[in-house]
Design goal:
Layout (H helix, E strand, L loop, with lengths): L3 E10 L2 E11 L4 E5 L6 H9 L6 E6 L2 E2 L10 E4 L11 H11 L4 H14 L15 H13 L5 E5 L7 H18 L3 E5 L2 H7 L2 E6 L2 E6 L1 H6 L4 H6 L6 E10 L2 E8 L2 E7 L13 E6 L4 E3 L9 E11 L4 E7 L2 E7 L10 E6 L5 E3 L9
Parallel strand pairs: 3-8, 3-9, 6-7, 7-8
Antiparallel strand pairs: 1-2, 1-4, 4-5, 9-10, 11-12, 11-14, 12-13, 14-20, 15-19, 16-17, 16-19, 17-18
This protein binds adenosine-5'-triphosphate and magnesium ion.
The site of adenosine-5'-triphosphate has 11 residues, from helix 1.
Length: 367
């Protein structure tokens, strides 16, 4: 049985259709991430699952119940919002048990739940404090605790980490991941942060303009993007998109690549039937920074070419080097000990085995 099924769901605000037929299905215990740029409809979809927004068309099924027109309180969900407003006059303990109080759970039982949740989130020493005496991360944990006190069939999170500073965000991200591994809860989590999506999700729905562009595991989406938008959205630094002319070679195809005034022919060592119709035309080569690495000298290899270095950015574990290929700035991830400086040439090796190709007009993947 599925934990959640979203069937042909549409949403219009007046004449504007913001969700255009969404279909998603997840199993119990799965961590689903809805990711996409601002305004693509993530929160609207989450709010519809929660029952905070009406559904214009289609159905939402939680477990074996169609909940499309049910009240939020009857859906067996718990939600953590982006602005996790805690009640300022209540202690942490009272904030966590507030929903239980409303549901008229007896006090001794409430205490058991609060203790369990506080232990899970490691906030036991904070239970008697008021929110103003907590750090941002601690407040976030209390907001999470309020949801976890409920034990629903699905947790809904809308950008729960976006108010935290970078370091705390990374810490809380691991804690959420650990919590999910331990408790095996079903989670739908909205973010516009592709790193959060890659690190947390079992499955990702990449959204754009009210549509799901691709649904799959993080690795599937990273390795096998359906189109140029997804390829560019997932991964940091982004995939490089280099327009190049495709020609036929003896045993496959070649790409004409120019850098620093020198043209090199790179061999395409993959079997992509769709490329046949692009011979003599332009294609967009999608190559990730980690697929371009430095080699010490000009080895007689069809995958090595001299490139002019424009920018060098050390990050610690690796160094990002910007070169220019066919007139386009291209980022390569090289070893921190690589010898490179702006204006100097360096020999780079291209791993085209994982490269992807796109149609320059439609931006769709060539397969
Ligand atoms: N009540 C409303 N009335 C009219 N339009 C709305 C309403 N709520 C949202 N929208 C529009 O629907 C679209 C989707 O909004 P939504 O809040 O779902 O985006 P989002 O993906 O969550 O974006 P963000 O990452 O910025 O939070 C936007 O264009 C927004 O302006
Ligand atoms: Mg939103």
């Amino acid at each position: 049985m599925q934990a959640l099924k979203i069937q042909n769901v549409e949403k219009s605000f007046g004449a504007i259709k913001v969700l255009k037929g969404i279909n998603i299905e997840i199993e119990p215990g799965q961590f689903l991430i809805l990711v996409g740029p601002s305004g693509c409809g993530k929160s609207t979809l989450l709010n519809m699952i929660a029952g905070l927004e009406t559904v214009s068309k289609g159905d939402i099924v939680i477990g074996d119940r169609t909940v499309t027109h049910l009240d939020p309180k009857d859906r067996d969900i718990a939600m953590v919002f982006q602005s996790y407003a805690l009640y300022p006059n209540m202690t942490v303990s009272q904030n966590i048990s507030f929903g239980l109080d409303i549901a008229k759970m007896p006090k001794p039982e409430q205490k058991v739940v609060v203790d369990r949740v506080a232990k899970m989130l490691q906030i036991e020493p904070l239970l008697n404090r008021k929110p103003k005496a907590l750090s941002g991360g601690q407040r976030q944990r209390v907001a999470m605790g309020r949801a976890l006190a409920r034990d629903p069939s699905i947790y809904l999170f809308d950008e729960p980490l976006s108010n935290l500073d970078a370091k705390l965000r990374v810490e809380m991200r691991s804690e959420i991941k650990e919590l999910h591994q331990r408790e095996k809860t079903t989670i739908v989590y909205v973010t516009h942060d592709q790193i959060e999506a890659m690190t947390l999700a079992d499955v990702i729905a990449v959204m754009k303009d009210g549509e799901v562009q691709q649904f799959g595991t993080p690795q599937e989406i990273y390795d096998n993007p359906e189109n140029q938008f997804i390829a560019g959205f997932m991964g940091s630094p982004s995939m490089n998109f280099v327009p190049c002319e495709l020609s036929k070679s003896d045993d496959g195809y070649e790409l004409l690549m120019e850098s620093a005034g020198k043209v090199t022919r790179l061999l395409v060592n993959q079997d992509i039937p769709g490329l046949a119709q692009y011979v003599g035309r332009s294609v967009v080569l999608g190559v990730r920074p980690e697929q371009i690495t430095q080699v010490s000298e000009d080895k007689p290899d069809s995958m090595v070419m001299p490139c002019a270095v424009e920018i060098v950015e050390p990050t610690g574990p690796d160094t990002m080097v910007t070169i220019r290929l066919n007139g386009v700035k291209t980022v390569c991830r090289v070893h921190p000990t690589a010898i490179c400086s702006p204006g100097e040439p360096m020999f780079l090796q291209f791993d085209v085995t994982k490269a992807v190709f796109f149609d320059p007009e439609t931006e769709l993947r060539i397969r």
